Amino acid sequence: MAKPAKVMLNVPAIKADFPILQRTIRDKRLVYLDSAATSQKPKQVIDATSDFYSRYNANVHRAIYELGEESTREYEGAREKIAAFIQAKSPTEIAFTKSTTESLNLVAYGYGLKGKIQKGDEIVGTVMEHHSNHVPWHFVKDHKGAVLKYVDVKDDGTLRMEQYDDLLTDRTKIVTVSLCSNVLGTINPVKEIAKRAHEVGAICVVDAAQAAPHMPIDVQDLDADFLAFSGHKMLGPTGIGVLYGKQELFEATEPLLGGGEMIREVHLGSAKWNDVPYKFEGGTPNIAGAIGLGVAVDYLTKIGMEAVRGHEMEITEYALEKLARLKGVQTYGPKDVKKRAGVVSFTIDGAHPHDIASILDVEGICVRSGHHCAQPLMERFNLPATARASFYIYNDMDDADALVAGIKKVQEVFA
Amino acid sequence: MAKPAKVMLNVPAIKADFPILQRTIRDKRLVYLDSAATSQKPKQVIDATSDFYSRYNANVHRAIYELGEESTREYEGAREKIAAFIQAKSPTEIAFTKSTTESLNLVAYGYGLKGKIQKGDEIVGTVMEHHSNHVPWHFVKDHKGAVLKYVDVKDDGTLRMEQYDDLLTDRTKIVTVSLCSNVLGTINPVKEIAKRAHEVGAICVVDAAQAAPHMPIDVQDLDADFLAFSGHKMLGPTGIGVLYGKQELFEATEPLLGGGEMIREVHLGSAKWNDVPYKFEGGTPNIAGAIGLGVAVDYLTKIGMEAVRGHEMEITEYALEKLARLKGVQTYGPKDVKKRAGVVSFTIDGAHPHDIASILDVEGICVRSGHHCAQPLMERFNLPATARASFYIYNDMDDADALVAGIKKVQEVFA
Amino acid sequence: MSISYDMYQEQILDHYKHPRNKGLLAGATKNARDSNPLCGDEVVLHVKVDGSDRIAEVKFEGQGCAISQASASMLTTMVKGMPLSDAEGLGRDAVLKQLGIPLSAVRLKCALLSLHVLKLALGQKADVAT
Amino acid sequence: MSISYDMYQEQILDHYKHPRNKGLLAGATKNARDSNPLCGDEVVLHVKVDGSDRIAEVKFEGQGCAISQASASMLTTMVKGMPLSDAEGLGRDAVLKQLGIPLSAVRLKCALLSLHVLKLALGQKADVAT
Ligand SMILES: Cc1ncc(COP(=O)(O)O)c(C=O)c1O
Ligand SMILES: Cc1ncc(COP(=O)(O)O)c(C=O)c1O
User: Fold this and answer.
1) Whole-model pTM?
2) Is B366 among the residues known to form the active site?
3) Domains in chain C: ranges and CATH
4) Is residue B276 pLDDT above 90, yes or no?
5) Domain B11-41+305-413: CATH superfamily, name plus number
6) Arithmetic mean of pLDDT over chain A
7) Is A59's CB within 8 Å of B46's CB?
8) Is the shortest distance between the CB of B209 and ligand 1 below 6 Å?
9) B123-168 pLDDT, tens per residue?
10) Contact call for A69 and C1, based on CB within 8 A
């Protein structure tokens, strides 16, 4: 993706939409730099949720009365918006889950453990995956005897693509990779990865938890077979996630959760599944969550995902430059902002990341510290933990400056 | 449970808390009689959700900064409230899921499919279960060779307890039963069922989706081993559910979803689980949902679950009497309100339940029609479908009268 | 959407109470069945195609609401005697026009179930039921 | 909760930068290790109990934040020479009092990790880390 011309969003106008950003922390302005963990929510999304509960709350799909018609229309409308957002061919390729984590588990169980994977079949992941894209595949290994292989990460934070070629065999059935790393910010060449996977007859599962909020996604162009993301990281409510799957793969996948909504017929001891995507939505779904996510997608679409990406590239470039000038501070991941998103992990000599986060908190700055649910990656870089700042549409250069000033305070304390 | 003395809640005051009940449907007063599908929400719950997003939205558990401390405190506070609500020994016996359906699947996978159940082990269910308490056990049958057995229902809507005794053997490992039927309203003798299950060394799994919103629950008195329910049926948000499990059983249960939060350590190809209940909460949870459910529990606790139960008994008794006087109208389930909850399934001669629901909708009355996700039960009673009215704290005798008047309209149309 | 008692017009109730072409069909050349997973409405169609590719006979069986059963009954009267190619070309609009009543999204599925089953019987894949 | 730079008082930073009793312990009679699953802080304790049931020697190893490592260092100074029964009776309040800084819930887990490991080493089950 070429770097768009200098685009900065109108941050004051955007900030005005986010009630929490009017808040102070111990008399300091709130500088929220933890959107990679969860994003803040604009009032449009907050209001959509309240509005649902206040005006047309009803269970979806089976109700004949007016309220149920309305809730079903909005719920299915959200599905259509999300399909358009990632360029899916049809809304039937979109299943609602509770999170990226559930989405990835759905694939691991439904296509793996309960599905097509046999003993000795190979699953290729990468060392930089989030735990949510590690642990579900352990289940397939433990219960089906699948073999797990991992593409390593180079010192510059990119994948060792030559090694990937070597790992692929005619036993490779699944390749699973994150579109964007939540620690390094690296944007992986998923289109290329999927192409090579398809050449050996494997499918490609994409963890887009850190990508969907921050850059345009075209599942058809990527030729992804499954793609997962979470609402709460992209301005949407907590408790709602998405699994995209190509129609024919959705049809070949077993459901994870058995229950209401996902069946066509149930008898004692046997059942027939409903059509896709409903067979994946057992139980009463997070209706308010789906509707809220639809409104979040509207909000992002209105700004334009190219513009979101451009804005974040500007701040990230600025922040990386400033941090590079600080002695005793290391950043991780690609230096070139064209190859990375606005997730900036860093360490400071002599100060543990928790202490960094604690001291930044005193300054009203929210950053994350720890292993970021990516222990294998931390082990690869021989790091017990990092601090991580991540940017979104409501951040600007002032926030990056606040981070730099905060880091200097940390250095003073641990001097 | 003895019938409490005539208690009627102050319905006008309660109604005032529910914004949606101020709404009209095509110029008619909204008469919401579908709380068994999902309940309406008081403004306290709606506001709690907005407040979370507007003031202290942050991911839980790992954040060091102030917002994360606040969200974690509220999230864990909700767990404590729920533990107290059902008399659990400790909050660590409460896991948040997305729904009753996920809770029951968690047990079926974690204790069954991935856990202790071996080929030939027996699981005893009942014919009156909701699909969410049928289909997960099919998975255990299909993947582990467990044998499924079912306790039948008598014509009066109660379980054939003599048959239950016959079904129990020393191979019985799990007994699973709903505390209250979502079609018949029957309140099952779960304490007795659990006792006999324990006598043969089986555990007892309880589906409390229709019970937790409507009557006091004491898991220790019931001696339930697992117990599941949903927030959205008890004034809470959509997308949040609860699984209670006895500490030692929780510890013996494998997680369903692998990912962030639920691990202690992850390496390439292996992982160690976090402590209970966190090992069951893989991925970012529905934080707003959990907090909202905590507030819903506060609301119900303030009214008092004994009073809720008493109120619903009054309306149900009144409605059943009125319906009994209508020619050509049949109701199902126990006649004695001491043995049943406020879920009233009915049919009208010559009018299909969908048409009943459509015509009642014209009158502003919301009832459900269909198989209510209980096809095996419908087959048992040889019914293609029923209409179902269900009562909650915001309903009163006027609502029951509106139902009766609506039924008369249906009879006119199909005369 | 204007929902009212219009949904239960004379004509609908008449087809519901006195269904046309209901029953089995000996020598049917095409048969299909489907049900609406959300509500359990069920329609079975039996079709006999003659030598000149016409629908010589058609019968339906089923259970369900007035809308689904009246629409099945009306559909059989519509397609009886129709050239196969015309029946294959039959779209949802034609069926809804004949029903002539306002329908919400959920009830639309009831109304279109029989058309869906017809398409199945004729070996077409089109999903008209949504 | 008053969070401020008080958390990083001289004394804490001193124990962090110059940990007491850090390293291996030859002839340790009790050892334990635990980590905080949420953040990865790690503490290992080696304890040598003498014939009169006293903690004759104690050493720690570990990695993590200033709070967890300073608190481990301070704990070793506290229990060295202590009768086993006193060490077993040691509660969170005593440890927190010695740290003497305001702590939020998350950082509390850092501060109490070493006490938790001590309890493990002494074969006690009490969960003090929450
Ligand atoms: C008895 C019973 N069990 C389980 C469920 C499933 O609940 P949910 O859809 O919230 O998962 C329901 C509600 O539909 C129910 O009534
Ligand atoms: C790359 C990546 N994958 C998966 C996840 C899991 O997302 P969730 O916790 O919403 O399930 C996250 C977020 O924590 C992530 O950053």
Assistant:
1) 0.95
2) no
3) 5-121 (3.90.1010.10)
4) yes
5) Aspartate Aminotransferase, domain 1 (3.90.1150.10)
6) 96
7) no
8) yes
9) 999 999 999 999 999 999 999 999 999 999 999 999 999 999 999 9
10) yes
